[in-house]
Amino acid sequence: MAFLSESTYFLILSIIACILLWGVSLFNGTVTALIVASWTGRFEDGTPFNTTYTGCFPLDFPISLLVAFFFYGTNGSHPGYQFFLIDAYATLQSAFVWLYAESTRPNEKPFGISNPIIWGLMWQAFGAAIALPLYFRAHLRWVDKVGDRLSSVDVAAARSLPASFIFGALLPAIIGMLPTWYPRSDVLHQNILAAWQPDPVWVSILQAIQVFVLSSRTRNNERAVWWTRLSYLLAALSSATGHIYGMGSILMSTDPAMTIIGVYVPFIFTGPDGAIQKLANGTWLFLQYDLIIISISCISWAYLLVLRTLPFNTWIRSYLLIILMSSSAVLGPGATVSLSLFWREGYLSTKRMSKPPRSPGLKVESLPPNQYVDVAIIGAGWYGLVAARTYLRVRPDVNLLIIDSDSTVGGVWSERRLYPNLVAQVNLGLFNYIDTPMSPEGMNDKRQVTGRMIHNYLQKYAEDHDLLSRIRFNTHVEKIERGPRGWRLRFRNSPDLLDAGKLMVGPGVTSIPNMPQYSPENVKVPIVHSRDLGESFTELQKNEYQHVMVVGAAKSAYDAVYLLLTMGKKVTWVIRPGGSGPLAILPSELLGFWTSIGVASTRLMTGLSPSILNTKGLVYSMFQNNQIGRWLAGKFWDTVAYLSDLHAGYDKGDHVAGLRPEVDGKSIFWANSGLGVVTLPDFWSTIHKGDVTIVRDELGVLNERTMSFKSGRSVESDFIVMCTGWGDHFAMFDDETKSKIGLPANAKVGDRDWKSIDREAEKSVDQKLPFLVKGPVLLNEQTTKSPSKYWRLYRRVVPIAHAKSGDRSLAILGQIHTVQTPLVASIQTFWAILYLEGELNLPGEDEMAKEIAEWNAWTRKRYISQGQKFPYSLYDFLPYVETLCKDLGVNSRRKSNFLAEYFSPYRPEDFSGIIDEYYAQKRLRSNEVKLNNVSDYSTLFDYSTLFAILLAGLGTLLVFANGA
């Protein structure tokens, strides 16, 4: 099906079924005859028809329709119809086992998979040819999502399944077919048919009762596979019996009307010859189409499931298809599918048992000296948590430890760093992992997520995935060096040592406070960094602190000033005249319609924001590769900057004018000093009305409570909050190690001449992205660019020196700055894990060096001061994610249509299931199967299935011989 996706294939089968079953039945009058008989209580040949079964018309009428539908096929009016119906229902009844077995696997399932009664009622009402392809479509999607984590069936459900099948599905069908062998009165037969029609309900009730009773008595989960396979064998036996009996009776019959073609092949509109009544030939024709599509869809489903279990090569795939088709002709499609599932369940069980047991993890309350772990992860924030969870998905047996200096999970969103009015700069639905939505509980009126919501989300994520037992809190990693078994970690104020085979470092940019330089003399004023504002909140509420000095121009400074003003404090806001100046701040909504982060998350933005990762395609050609497009892109950014300035009110003539970004136009585009988003509706009005004095000066001497600035001015305050950025969060590596692993360092170690590569990269960026050739005009003459820090990390993760030497023991996480951190974290960590595990092929050294140099050149030109310091990619997260997806071989275009692809915001949920897609693609890409020691075929097929295959081949020859 290379030319057609599986999902589309099954959907098309269902649509064709709708047309053939109901379109033809409407055309030839079958539907009308059913309605008339059920309404009048009499068939067209005068046979009386009982239409009252429960006394409730809304129930009786649909039951009457079904009784009328099956009456002439089960009352002995035409032997060919009878045998056909036996065959058809022998196939269909076995589907109960398939659906109920899959529904009771403990894995997380969509509603349709966990509630098979839906499909049973659907095929009773509309036809199994419509219902089953839709189920198979949903089931294969789920199987791909679950991947190798598919669990065995619940043992209580497995034990219940044989009896539920026999008494809820098989026995009612046999009783309903009894007139085939024994005559009975029309009224009795109609009543029996009426009792038979809700058999999906009978199966569900029987299954539920047995599971309830057995769940308290059943403990041996190892028997679940045995009971499940027994159910499949019972289904195969009953289906094969019905098929062989029905088809054998037709083949051995001397009646000229009893032929394979006459009984099974539909006559387009009129139905089979010899079925005189409209409700005989019309319903028979309906079921002929029904059985054909059921058979095709069932065999297709079984074929695709077997391929997912073992990715056979092309020759064996063809042979497998021939086997399934031959078996379907001889044993029937129901038996063929049941035997396929019987083999699959056994193989999956063997595969599960062959996996090493899951490591229980470390008891991290105390760490023995020289402890060894397979993987150490530094940081329990956005990146560290998803890295741990993903690693445990990829390698459930891994011995893994997370280390964090805080006392709770969350990093910047940890418990102690929360304070009132702390709100993220994004809306609900844009700030969560790809597979775990965030609860709306605690959301503000603008649908923005609060700090408390984020912390609770990460805490629950860690709890749900059993990560807390793997975290060592309150542990500061002081030194990391190469060790005898990979990496050796030393801790502050602890004699413990930890050796790790692999190391994932994601400490977070906001983990180490940076304190500005000043001369302290007899200081009598409390001083805290913005990191500790949450812990200091209660102290700040005291009346003795009326005048607070806030130092810095980062987003944390804006939040701190707003918080202090809402507390009624007087604020002196100190911003040094040098540096990159005040922050550029977006309104939360543009023109009152579109959320700012939502707009920044569209694919259209990848064209409006020149990115080195997006130098091909439609939007690049439109907006970056021609002069008119660049002019239009520039006007877009001018408009956004104008709307932002208007929203802030820089021109109102008050102190807020001192917060205008010091870039001549397009301040939102360049984000020279970073970018913020207004998170509260009264943010700017509070700043305008508040008692705020903005001072542009350098700190000098702090004597008791008075800060003397270098200009000679002095200000007295009661409390000082330093919002002055962050220090070296990689200080656990010495300079030599930093240089070797691609981190900014004073020491330069390595054999590569980066100067020439960097020069070529500058030229390449200028040629590909002319928009960036001429940078912004800085309005403040004192504004200085930060000294360039060179990050030599391929894809912002892999040290190039390690890649060159084949050392896959270290991955750097979370150093790329974007507007959708959790989404990027989900994809980047998976990419990094595959790299560490050797599953990801890297390009040559020269190609990696070029990628690194071009990124560095681009981010310095694109984001100016911020790009000098970090791998900044604020508006460009989508091209980055797309690049990683291409490396993984999975689809990065996740929207359903062209308009949504370019104009709808990309959300984390759009990438849900990408890990399972990767493994599904990996299985499908495998063209060869390593068949070791399979001379007796026991690895591929057990003996019962092999016997069925041989029988199918022999039977096919007999069928062809009989037909000839």
Automatic annotation (TrEMBL):
Q: Which residues cross the membrane?
A: 9-39, 51-71, 83-101, 121-140, 161-181, 201-218, 257-276, 283-306, 318-343, 940-961
Upper lineage is:
Eukaryota, Fungi, Dikarya, Ascomycota, Pezizomycotina
Keyword list (alphabetical) reads: FAD, Flavoprotein, Membrane, Monooxygenase, Oxidoreductase, Transmembrane, Transmembrane helix
Alphabetically, the GO molecular function entries are: monooxygenase activity
Q: Which organism is it from?
A: Talaromyces marneffei PM1
Q: What is this protein called?
A: Putative flavin-containing monooxygenase 1
Q: Which Pfam families match?
A: Pyr_redox_3
Superkingdom: Eukaryota
Q: Which InterPro entries match?
A: FAD/NAD-bd_sf, FMO-like
